Amino acid sequence: MIKDTVVFALTSSVDLANEIAQTLGIPLGNCDVRHFSDGEILVQLGESVRGKHVYIIQSTCAPVSNNLMELLICIDACKRASAATINAVIPYFGYARQDRKARPRQPITSKLVASLLERAGATRVITMELHATQIQGFFDIPADDISCMPIIGEYFDSLNLENVVVVSPDHGGTTRARVLAEMLHAPLAIIDKRRPKPNVAEAMNLIGDVDGKTAIIVDDIVDTAGTLVSGIDMLYRNGAKAVYATCAHGVLSGPAIDRLKESKIVEFVCTNTIPQNEKAAQLSKMKVLSVGRLLGQIVKGIEENRSVSEVLQQYNSK
Q1: Which CATH class is domain 149-289?
Q2: Counting Cβ atoms within 10 Å, is residue 250 exposed (0-12), middle (13-18) or buried (19+)?
């Protein structure tokens, strides 16, 4: 069925889309994205997709609105060109942090984005390490949330670190941290924090023992790195001998790079769900892991009508 598969790359994920296409053994689809001087976007398909299974690769990272509109417009173009299925592969799902009404009169924007994707014509969504797993329930089409933890766990296992403790930066990330801890056969610690307003977090207390240990802080998103840096400082104050940090999505906006440069972190590890070439060039202690082969295997499994769980198990066993 791969011969009936087309992979298109939009602006934010060209390199990742190339990796996925190479994993599948097919050329990247021909697609032209134009931004006019007034801000309007045109996505022109350069080949027929009639009756084919289309996979559109696009992370909705910064500039979020432009990237989201590119994706919606490409989905519409594929629908009007009679594609058999239209699969939106969104390695980083923007607006995922707006998944509930944290305060009165706030929107639930992740639900709005889900509705927009469905209304545009997407028949499936594939994303990675959602901020909140219940976002899958915002869709009335299949929505696969793929974990990055096997890739991250494999990397840290290869470092042969001794006396490791995995640290969750908050209570909400405990499940994710426990998965990594089990992979590394390490104990778990939790930072108790409060968030007085968006992009501002204060570390309060540490639950668990890090004294004399190598700590690995694991999160799904690192944005301004304020939470991360305060967590790093707390771990060193509590006796950690070395601190690593890892996340699925390195948003790294605003002062994030400067904060990480000035911190005592040994290494910052993230994936390429968001393009990191420019940021990695600025931060020498940054390691970027690729999710391209994993996503390629997921696409191949879907095309072969195999269980996504089965594909993940086979990938993890290699």
Answers
A1: alpha beta
A2: buried
